[in-house]
Amino acid sequence: MTTRPQLSMASPSSPAAALKPVLIHLLRGASDLASVAATHAKLVKAGFASPLASSNHLLAAYCRCGAMCCARDLFDGMRDRDVVSWTTLMSGYAAAARPRDAMSLLRAMGSSGVRPNAVTFSTAACACARLADAGLGRQVHAQAEVAGCARDAVVATSLLDMYAKAGGVEDARAVFDAMAAPARNAVSWGAMLAAYAQNTLGDEAIRLFAELRTHGGGVAPNHFMLATVVSACAGMARLGIGRCVHGAVLRLGYGNNDVISVALVDMYSKCGCYEYSRKVFDRIEQPSVVTYTSIIVAAAKYGRWRCVLTLFNEMVDQGVRPNDVTLLGVMHACSHSGLVDTGLQLLRSMQSKYGVAPCPSHYTSAVDMLGRAGRLEEAFELAKEAQVEGNDALLLWNSLLSACRTHKRLDLATMAGQRVFNNQQDVAGGLVMMSNAYVSAGQIDNAAAVRSSMRLRGIRKDPGCSWIEVKDTPYVFYAGAISCAGAWADEVLMLLDELESKMRERGYRGRLGSARVSDAHEDEEEEGKGVMVGVHSEILALAFGLLVVPKGMTIRVMKNLRMCSDCHEVFKLISGIIEREFVVRDLNRFHHFKMGSCSCNDYW
DNA sequence: ATAGGGTTAG
Predict the structure, then answer these.
(1) Strands A590-594, A597-598: parallel, antiparallel or unpaired by DSSP?
(2) For chain B, which bases have at least one atom within 7 A of a protein Cβ?
(3) How many C-beta atoms lie closer than 10 Å to residue A334's C-beta?
(4) Closest residue by C-alpha to C1' distance, nucleotide B1
(5) Considering only A148-152, A321-325, A509-513, which range has the smallest mean pLDDT?
(6) H-run or E-run covering A440
(7) More confident call, A370 vs A599
(8) Going by fewer Cβ within 10 Å, which terminus of chain A is more open, N or C?
């Protein structure tokens, strides 16, 4: 930021009183520490440093620069402090990712006798949101209620957001419901939509969006809401509704909004329609880092590495500097296409070439690609070199464990498993990996032991499920449970029998449904309830899709976990037997099955 | 003067 010479050159002959508004104006426009400090000096010289209003402006200016030490020194030296002084400093701490300091300031404020106002409560709620601490947030809520501020639109919206970010969607909704309808403005509707979307309640987000249009009391959808709803559709892979929302985006005149375009690119790619993603991207006039990244990530999901590298080079040529997410997307593309050395090179050169330091996720991606390629010793060395901690470490070592499983390297799996256990974090994923590694090595007893220790310790993993959208309605399938097919259940079974025998003729040796131990990668709670014990959810969803999706239409199956190698083989075989195309969305990529093969070329 | 919501990655 530059200072404004025409303002700093206030006439020396002007009376001091005239200087004050000029200096205050300077402060309000300043966002760099040097000019704030310079103006501070001038204020002191002119004798205005101590009056409350000037100090508050200075305080706000220091907070805007993120110079929290300067802000604190100033605050501590102030003779008088009013609610604005306290609130300004609190808000500075919250914005500087120091929510704990903001909250201790709230307590100190209480004992100093200055009464908080609506802005103070809103700021405190924001700090609690950053801490994701609903307990502390509830105390703020209670204080605001007592002070009569809780119905204030801004306070209520901040509290709503706080509950949502602390995982209490019901509490967030209660705050929303308690707001009088006229108090609900575009921001509160947007915050409630985001609350659902961020807590993976996409259906609720879509329902609320519909409610806005019928009972919104004149509040029009804005770009915040549209981006949120599109992202909710992406999360649930709901192509039908996603296209409707895209229509609304265009009708409302937001077709040129970058943030919405990014959400649309992501939505179409997660719905299995890369071509639509491409169309949305091609309409963007001046793609930014984020828009380039969204299409790179989309192409990476489809294993289109040539496309990814072309886009990446084009972006760099255009002078758009890649960020950490872009580079991760390119690395994923390398990983999913077997371009191990290109990917590793990128990891080693990202700092010098693009000024981006490798994050834990970049190391995880690199470990993943080495692991897939069977270069497990290198993967292990790199994992150690990365020196990551906490949840990041879990992801990293899990990735290695998964590779150990695929390549039946129990020796390394045990060492990697140890690293997972050493992390005091959520270990469910690691334990499942361990159990699967034992299964692959034929050590069924050990696998069972890990599983039962999980049950004893009350550790659960999200059950694996697959779903398919038919005429805008999602049908969700769990392993072994055919009841989801409703009236079609019997026909699903018959079709699976028929397919199994046809696959046999082509050399398939497995079984689609039986109590196989290798099914351990999916939840077995449904065991016994279904007619076909052990049949994987994606196979059920596919069979259902083959029956109900009209011929000629691509069948799109979504899955919340990664597809297992058995199912991958089965899907390839089925696509060769039946002349239909189907797309499976994995946890992290797409598989397009056609005439007996898959777009991933078995790299996954 | 001080305050509230959104996109890409996992």
Answers:
(1) antiparallel
(2) 1-10
(3) 25
(4) A57
(5) A509-513
(6) helix A428-440
(7) A370
(8) N
Residue with tokens 């279904």: A530
A481 DSSP 8-state letter: B
Q: Could you read off the pLDDT of A406-421 as tens digits, one per residue?
A: 787 878 877 777 776 6
Q: Are A391 and A359 in contact (CB under 8 A)?
A: no
Q: Residue A334 CA to nucleotide B5 C1', Å?
A: 36
Bridge partners of residue A584, in order along the sequence: A557, A591
Q: Where are the beta strands (DSSP E) in A449-516?
A: 465-470, 473-478
Query: Please, what is the Cα angle at A564 between A461 and A375, to 5 degrees?
Result: 100
Q: Regarding predicted confidence, which is higher, A38 or A585?
A: A585
Closest residue (Cα, C1') to B5: A191
Tens-place pLDDT, residues A141-182: 999 999 999 999 999 999 999 999 988 899 999 999 999 888
Compute how many other C-beta atoms are within 10 angstroms of the C-beta atom of residue A10: 16
Distance CA A214, CA A233 (A): 20
Domain extents for chain A?
184-285, 465-598
- Asked if residue A212 keeps its beta carbon closer than 7 A to nucleic acid strand B, the reply is no
- At position A432, the amino acid (one-letter code) is V
Cross-strand bridge partners of residue A477: A466
Phi-psi region of A471 (alpha: psi -120 to 50; beta: other; left: phi over 0): left
| Protein CA at A506 to nucleotide C1' at B1, angstroms | 77
